[in-house]
Amino acid sequence: MKKAWIAVSGLVVVGGGLLTYMGGETIDRFNPLVKEKDVYVLTKGEAKPDGKRYFYMLNGVDESGDENTIKVGVSGKDDYSDSYLKVHVKGKYVYKFEKVQEKEVPEKAKEKLKK
Fold first, then answer.
1. Residue 79 confidence (pLDDT) above 90
2. Would you list the DSSP string of the chain?
């Protein structure tokens, strides 16, 4: 019985560790170890259709210049083409986003986005 309890406990710990390490939109949303932050992105062209919604796969840059890839869902394919967006994320999970003017984007982020 004791060996079974140790095996189950070990599987729970390893499984939880793998889920935390591998991440993903849903897992990042509830993971207390992942920090929330604002990321700036520059959309180029039209969004790609995926069912009833359209999505951009974008390289986001935070205020300190760190980059990560995020998936932003929009209702129309032309709604945000060639625009700067400020996206509030937690890992890969997108809470909300808003269109911003170029002058509102931090310089470090703007430099990396224009490359």
1. no
2. -HHHHHHHHHHHHHHHHHHHHH--HHHHHH-TTSPEEEEEEE--SPPEEETTEEEEEEEEEETTS-EEEEEEEESSTTTTTT-EEEEEEETTEEEEEEEE-GGGS-HHHHHHHT-
